[in-house]
Design brief:
CATH topology of one domain: Serine Threonine Protein Phosphatase 5, Tetratricopeptide repeat
CATH architecture of one domain: Alpha Horseshoe
Strand content: under 5%
Radius of gyration: 37 Å
Distance between the termini: 119 Å
Order of helices and strands: HHHHHHHHHH
Helix content: 55-70%
Number of strands: 0
Structural class: mainly alpha
Shape: elongated
Length: 316
């Protein structure tokens, strides 16, 4: 009996360290598995977030495509209804139908050609008297705006006169693009979200979609604090696509109506670039020369840009 007890004690003393080592290995393995599970959970959450973003982008893209498709389909019937009908399908002559009875007190210009309001032949009417002095002010050019020396918002800029003064022959002004009636309806309602979505297209150099996004922002949030920045980037989207007239309008708005904005000096620099591209060299050089006086707080990048553009425009 004593021998058996001694054998059991010896066997336990030999197997005890091995069991302890196995338990330690199990604990290490469990810790590794827990770390791997946590990493995989984080990766799954990140993939789910990216998946939601992709779904939102696809949804917006589908809405945009549906609107363009419906707009293109809606234009065809209008064009068809506006087209004149062929002579073969013309209705019977109106003379065959009895004329409706006219009221006795209705005005007939044929019976009273000299009555007030009767139509007159073209060129027979007397010209209107001139407006009194000070009643109306003609649109100012960029020269009158920058001569204000930053005293306040300048008068509206007549880009047609600017083009004629610099280029010698005014090109026909491009017709304004109609605003997208459903642009504001596609916004998220949050100004920061709409601004960031439009600015992302600027970073991706998708300037046409950036234009749509910033026009949507300005229609939905016209009084938001991000309106100066949105107006600036809207002008930049025009400038990058060679639409210098529209770009000059947006940059002029920033540099005259949002003079306290950090984008105002850069907008005035871009205004000069757009004017030079339109052929208005004198106005562009005057804009570059006035920028430092109007915005003395302009950063070094803006001042370097002014020097570079002055050399490019060969300003005196």
């Amino acid at each position: 009996m004593l021998r058996r007890l001694v054998v059991l004690v010896a066997a336990f003393s030999l197997t005890g360290p091995a069991l302890a080592q196995d338990a330690a290995d199990v604990v290490v393995r469990m810790n590794r598995l827990e770390n791997q599970v946590r990493q995989m959970s984080g990766q799954i959450e990140q993939l789910q977030f990216e998946n939601r973003q992709l779904k939102d982008q696809v949804k917006k893209f589908q809405e945009d495509v549906e609107f363009r498709f419906q707009d293109s389909r809606g234009g065809a019937p209008r064009a068809q209804t506006a087209a004149p009908q062929p002579a073969a399908t013309a209705p019977p002559a109106a003379s065959a139908q009895p004329r409706p009875q006219r009221r006795g007190d209705a005005f007939d210009p044929g019976e009273m050609p000299n009555a007030p309001g009767a139509p007159r032949p073209l060129g027979t009417t007397s010209p209107s008297p001139p407006l009194p002095a000070g009643a109306a002010q003609p649109p100012a050019t960029i020269g009158s705006i920058i001569d204000n020396d930053g005293a306040g918002p300048g008068s509206p800029l007549d880009l047609n006169q600017v083009r004629g003064a610099g280029a010698g022959a005014a090109a026909p002004a491009s017709a304004p693009r109609p605003a997208n009636p459903s642009v504001a309806a596609t916004g998220s309602g949050d100004p920061r979200t709409d601004y960031d979505a439009a600015y992302a297209y600027i970073l991706q150099k998708q300037y046409e979609r950036a234009e749509m996004g910033f026009r949507q922002f300005l229609q939905s949030h016209p009084r938001d604090k991000l309106s100066p920045d949105a107006t600036f980037w809207l002008g930049e989207s025009y400038l990058q696509r060679g639409r210098h007239r529209e770009a000059a309008e947006q940059f002029l708005k920033v540099s005259t109506e949002y003079t306290t904005s950090v984008k105002a000096p850069d907008a005035m620099l871009r205004l000069g670039i757009a004017l030079n591209a339109l052929g208005a060299k004198d106005q562009a050089c005057a804009t570059f020369a006035q920028l430092g006086r109007k915005f003395p707080q302009a950063g070094p990048s803006v001042r370097e840009g002014v020097e570079r553009e002055q050399k490019r425009a060969r300003c005196a």
